[in-house]
Amino acid sequence: MKTHLFAAVLASGLALQTHAGFNENFSAWSSLGDAAILDGAATLTSAFSDGTDDPVSFNLSGNDPVTIEEIETFSGAALGSFLLAGLDISEGSVIRQTFSVLTGEVISFDWVFLTNDNGGDMAFVVLDGAISLLADTTSTVPGAPYGYASSVAGTFTSAPFSSDSMVTLAIGVADAGDFSVTSAVRVPSIVPEPSTGVLAIAAASLLGLRRRRQ
Protein backbone atom coordinates (compact mmCIF):
# COMPACT_ATOMS: atom_id res chain seq x y z
CA MET A 1 0.00 0.00 0.00
CA LYS A 2 2.82 2.42 0.81
CA THR A 3 4.45 1.77 -2.57
CA HIS A 4 1.23 2.53 -4.41
CA LEU A 5 0.73 5.69 -2.35
CA PHE A 6 4.25 6.92 -3.17
CA ALA A 7 3.69 6.27 -6.87
CA ALA A 8 0.41 8.18 -6.79
CA VAL A 9 2.02 11.19 -5.13
CA LEU A 10 4.79 11.29 -7.73
CA ALA A 11 2.38 10.83 -10.62
CA SER A 12 0.33 13.80 -9.46
CA GLY A 13 3.29 16.09 -10.08
CA LEU A 14 4.42 14.70 -13.45
CA ALA A 15 3.06 14.67 -16.98
CA LEU A 16 5.72 12.89 -18.98
CA GLN A 17 5.26 13.24 -22.72
CA THR A 18 5.09 9.74 -24.16
CA HIS A 19 5.42 11.15 -27.71
CA ALA A 20 8.79 12.72 -27.00
CA GLY A 21 10.85 9.62 -27.79
CA PHE A 22 11.89 8.19 -31.13
CA ASN A 23 11.00 4.75 -32.45
CA GLU A 24 10.57 4.11 -36.16
CA ASN A 25 9.64 7.69 -37.03
CA PHE A 26 9.49 11.23 -35.65
CA SER A 27 5.78 10.97 -34.77
CA ALA A 28 4.87 14.44 -33.44
CA TRP A 29 8.22 15.94 -34.46
CA SER A 30 8.75 18.15 -37.49
CA SER A 31 12.07 18.11 -39.34
CA LEU A 32 13.96 20.29 -41.78
CA GLY A 33 17.06 19.21 -43.66
CA ASP A 34 18.69 15.78 -43.29
CA ALA A 35 17.03 14.00 -40.36
CA ALA A 36 16.24 10.33 -39.86
CA ILE A 37 15.87 7.65 -37.21
CA LEU A 38 19.08 5.60 -36.99
CA ASP A 39 19.24 2.71 -34.51
CA GLY A 40 16.40 4.18 -32.46
CA ALA A 41 17.82 7.70 -32.16
CA ALA A 42 16.97 10.88 -34.01
CA THR A 43 20.03 11.59 -36.16
CA LEU A 44 20.59 14.87 -37.96
CA THR A 45 23.49 15.62 -40.30
CA SER A 46 24.88 18.52 -42.27
CA ALA A 47 25.54 16.25 -45.27
CA PHE A 48 24.25 17.07 -48.74
CA SER A 49 22.38 14.39 -50.66
CA ASP A 50 24.85 14.41 -53.57
CA GLY A 51 27.57 13.04 -51.28
CA THR A 52 30.13 15.74 -52.05
CA ASP A 53 30.84 16.63 -48.39
CA ASP A 54 33.10 13.68 -47.60
CA PRO A 55 34.67 10.75 -49.47
CA VAL A 56 31.72 8.68 -48.17
CA SER A 57 28.20 10.13 -48.09
CA PHE A 58 26.73 10.61 -44.60
CA ASN A 59 23.32 11.87 -45.80
CA LEU A 60 20.51 9.74 -44.34
CA SER A 61 17.25 11.05 -45.79
CA GLY A 62 17.94 12.35 -49.27
CA ASN A 63 17.09 15.85 -48.07
CA ASP A 64 19.71 18.60 -48.21
CA PRO A 65 20.56 20.77 -45.19
CA VAL A 66 18.95 24.20 -45.14
CA THR A 67 20.14 27.78 -44.69
CA ILE A 68 20.66 29.53 -41.37
CA GLU A 69 17.64 31.74 -42.05
CA GLU A 70 15.45 28.66 -42.51
CA ILE A 71 16.85 27.12 -39.33
CA GLU A 72 16.12 30.26 -37.32
CA THR A 73 12.56 30.59 -38.62
CA PHE A 74 11.81 26.88 -38.16
CA SER A 75 13.26 26.66 -34.65
CA GLY A 76 11.56 29.82 -33.37
CA ALA A 77 14.75 31.85 -33.01
CA ALA A 78 14.82 35.45 -34.20
CA LEU A 79 16.52 36.11 -37.51
CA GLY A 80 20.18 36.90 -36.90
CA SER A 81 20.13 35.49 -33.37
CA PHE A 82 22.65 32.71 -34.07
CA LEU A 83 25.21 35.24 -35.25
CA LEU A 84 24.46 37.46 -32.25
CA ALA A 85 25.09 34.44 -30.03
CA GLY A 86 28.50 34.01 -31.66
CA LEU A 87 27.45 30.99 -33.73
CA ASP A 88 28.49 31.52 -37.35
CA ILE A 89 26.31 28.88 -39.02
CA SER A 90 26.24 28.36 -42.78
CA GLU A 91 23.65 25.54 -43.09
CA GLY A 92 22.34 22.52 -41.23
CA SER A 93 19.39 20.40 -40.15
CA VAL A 94 16.89 20.69 -37.30
CA ILE A 95 13.93 18.95 -35.64
CA ARG A 96 11.17 20.67 -33.63
CA GLN A 97 8.23 19.89 -31.37
CA THR A 98 5.83 21.92 -29.22
CA PHE A 99 4.51 20.15 -26.12
CA SER A 100 3.26 20.77 -22.61
CA VAL A 101 5.25 20.90 -19.39
CA LEU A 102 4.20 21.24 -15.77
CA THR A 103 5.45 23.65 -13.13
CA GLY A 104 8.79 22.48 -11.77
CA GLU A 105 9.57 20.11 -14.64
CA VAL A 106 12.73 20.28 -16.68
CA ILE A 107 13.39 19.13 -20.22
CA SER A 108 16.30 16.74 -20.37
CA PHE A 109 17.94 14.65 -23.07
CA ASP A 110 21.21 12.90 -23.83
CA TRP A 111 23.04 13.77 -27.03
CA VAL A 112 26.07 12.71 -29.04
CA PHE A 113 27.85 15.08 -31.43
CA LEU A 114 29.78 13.39 -34.25
CA THR A 115 32.05 15.16 -36.72
CA ASN A 116 34.64 14.87 -39.45
CA ASP A 117 35.39 18.58 -39.21
CA ASN A 118 37.88 20.63 -37.20
CA GLY A 119 36.58 24.06 -38.15
CA GLY A 120 33.78 24.80 -35.72
CA ASP A 121 30.74 22.73 -36.77
CA MET A 122 28.25 22.51 -33.92
CA ALA A 123 25.14 20.99 -32.37
CA PHE A 124 22.62 23.28 -30.72
CA VAL A 125 19.24 23.49 -28.99
CA VAL A 126 16.63 26.24 -29.20
CA LEU A 127 14.10 26.31 -26.35
CA ASP A 128 11.34 28.88 -26.79
CA GLY A 129 13.64 31.02 -28.92
CA ALA A 130 16.66 30.83 -26.61
CA ILE A 131 19.74 29.28 -28.25
CA SER A 132 22.17 27.02 -26.38
CA LEU A 133 25.30 25.41 -27.79
CA LEU A 134 25.49 21.68 -27.08
CA ALA A 135 28.94 21.08 -28.56
CA ASP A 136 31.29 22.11 -31.32
CA THR A 137 34.39 20.59 -32.89
CA THR A 138 36.68 22.08 -30.25
CA SER A 139 35.21 19.78 -27.58
CA THR A 140 35.41 16.49 -29.49
CA VAL A 141 37.92 13.68 -29.02
CA PRO A 142 39.10 11.14 -31.61
CA GLY A 143 36.90 8.11 -32.08
CA ALA A 144 33.25 7.94 -33.09
CA PRO A 145 30.64 5.48 -34.38
CA TYR A 146 28.99 5.48 -37.82
CA GLY A 147 32.22 6.33 -39.61
CA TYR A 148 32.84 9.75 -38.06
CA ALA A 149 36.31 10.85 -36.96
CA SER A 150 35.58 12.30 -33.50
CA SER A 151 32.75 12.80 -31.04
CA VAL A 152 31.58 14.09 -27.69
CA ALA A 153 28.51 13.20 -25.61
CA GLY A 154 26.55 15.04 -22.96
CA THR A 155 23.18 15.79 -21.41
CA PHE A 156 21.09 18.93 -21.84
CA THR A 157 18.85 19.92 -18.93
CA SER A 158 16.75 23.05 -18.92
CA ALA A 159 15.95 25.21 -15.91
CA PRO A 160 12.74 24.17 -14.09
CA PHE A 161 9.64 25.72 -15.65
CA SER A 162 7.93 28.30 -13.48
CA SER A 163 4.41 27.45 -14.66
CA ASP A 164 2.37 24.95 -16.64
CA SER A 165 2.93 25.93 -20.25
CA MET A 166 3.46 24.96 -23.86
CA VAL A 167 7.09 25.07 -24.99
CA THR A 168 8.81 24.70 -28.34
CA LEU A 169 12.02 22.69 -28.47
CA ALA A 170 14.32 22.47 -31.50
CA ILE A 171 17.57 20.53 -31.82
CA GLY A 172 19.98 20.84 -34.71
CA VAL A 173 23.41 20.43 -36.21
CA ALA A 174 25.18 22.85 -38.52
CA ASP A 175 28.26 23.54 -40.57
CA ALA A 176 30.09 26.66 -39.46
CA GLY A 177 31.80 28.89 -41.98
CA ASP A 178 31.80 26.36 -44.82
CA PHE A 179 29.57 23.96 -46.73
CA SER A 180 31.82 20.91 -46.59
CA VAL A 181 32.73 18.09 -44.19
CA THR A 182 29.88 16.44 -42.31
CA SER A 183 28.83 16.67 -38.68
CA ALA A 184 25.86 15.03 -36.95
CA VAL A 185 23.95 14.97 -33.69
CA ARG A 186 22.11 11.96 -32.23
CA VAL A 187 19.34 12.16 -29.62
CA PRO A 188 17.73 8.92 -28.34
CA SER A 189 14.80 10.50 -26.47
CA ILE A 190 13.52 13.70 -24.92
CA VAL A 191 11.23 13.91 -21.90
CA PRO A 192 10.13 16.41 -19.30
CA GLU A 193 11.37 15.17 -15.94
CA PRO A 194 10.71 16.13 -12.32
CA SER A 195 13.18 18.66 -11.02
CA THR A 196 14.76 18.23 -7.58
CA GLY A 197 12.18 20.63 -6.20
CA VAL A 198 9.27 18.58 -7.53
CA LEU A 199 10.69 15.40 -6.02
CA ALA A 200 11.17 17.15 -2.67
CA ILE A 201 7.55 18.34 -2.71
CA ALA A 202 6.38 14.82 -3.59
CA ALA A 203 8.42 13.33 -0.73
CA ALA A 204 7.08 15.93 1.70
CA SER A 205 3.52 15.18 0.58
CA LEU A 206 4.11 11.48 1.11
CA LEU A 207 5.49 12.11 4.59
CA GLY A 208 2.49 14.25 5.46
CA LEU A 209 0.06 11.60 4.24
CA ARG A 210 1.85 8.93 6.24
CA ARG A 211 1.72 11.02 9.42
CA ARG A 212 -2.00 11.71 9.00
CA ARG A 213 -2.66 7.98 8.58
CA GLN A 214 -0.80 7.08 11.80
What would you say this structure looks like, in words?
The protein is of the alpha+beta class. It has one domain: Jelly Rolls, CATH 2.60.120. 19% of the residues lie in helices and 39% in strands. It has four helices and 13 strands. Strands 2, 3, 6, 9, 10, 12 and 13 form a seven-stranded antiparallel beta sheet that branches. A hairpin with a 2-residue loop joins strand 7 and strand 8. The longest helix is centred in the C-terminal third of the chain and has 18 residues. The protein is globular.
Offer a few descriptive terms.
214 residues, alpha+beta, Jelly Rolls, 7-stranded antiparallel beta sheet, 6-stranded antiparallel beta sheet, 13 strands, disordered N terminus, disordered C terminus
Characterize the biggest β-sheet: 7 strands, antiparallel
The CATH topology annotation reads as Jelly Rolls
Per DSSP E runs of 2 or more residues, the count of β-strands stands at 13
Specify the CATH architecture: Sandwich
> Percent of residues in helical segments?
10-25%
Order of helices and strands: HEEEEHHEEEEEEEEEH
Measure the end-to-end span.
Answer: 14 Å
Mean pLDDT reading: 80
What structural class do helix, strand and pairing data support? alpha+beta
Shape: globular
Global Rg: 20 Å
Count up the helices.
4
Number of domains: 1
Low-pLDDT ranges: 1-19, 195-213
**In percent terms, what proportion of residues is strand?**
35-45%
Which helices and strands occur, and which strands form pairs?
Layout lengths: L1 H11 L17 E3 L1 E5 L2 E5 L20 E2 H8 L5 H4 L4 E13 L3 E11 L6 E6 L2 E7 L4 E2 L7 E8 L7 E12 L6 E5 L3 E4 L1 H18 L1
Antiparallel strand pairs: 1-5, 2-3, 3-12, 4-5, 5-11, 6-10, 6-12, 6-13, 7-8, 7-11, 9-10
Helix pairs in contact: 1-4
